[in-house]
Design brief:
Elements: H1 2-28, E1 32-37, E2 47-51, E3 56-63, H2 69-72, E4 77-80, H3 84-94, E5 108-111, E6 120-126, E7 136-139, E8 150-156
Parallel strand pairs: 1-3, 2-8
Antiparallel strand pairs: 3-6, 4-5, 4-7, 7-8
Length: about 160
Amino acid sequence: MKSQFLHQFVLSIAAASLSIFAASTATAQACAATVESTDQMQYNLKNIDVSKKCKEFTITLKHVGKMPKAAMGHNLAIAKTADMAAVNTDGITAGIANEYVKPKDTRVLAYTKMIGGGETTTTTLKVSALNDKDAYAFFCTFPGHASLMKGTLKLVP
């Protein structure tokens, strides 16, 4: 009886360990991320790792604040870090009607629409557009926000 109980106990521990390992592996290989933005012009993440094993990577942006888009709108754009300032400058000229992103700007690898408090949006990035040689950033193109609302996006194995 003790032997049977011990055997069941060991099997339960082994199954739980495998389950935890599988969950951590799935998380590490996930081809998606969620970023929250606030009325205080902040993202909750400063880094996003994108696995080379993904064909596409989806980013969900949630505005967890209460202010409307006109006053405290946020989006999330992805570009090479070296292009960020120019993308923002051109985005101001493009205006709100274009989500503060210059139409057909090839420097922008992906971007979300501009959202206000309580709203959610997504964008999908083709991972093949990234390479190991360049540094990438994600940032908000609403005028003046990128100074605080930015982070790094990195291609990882």
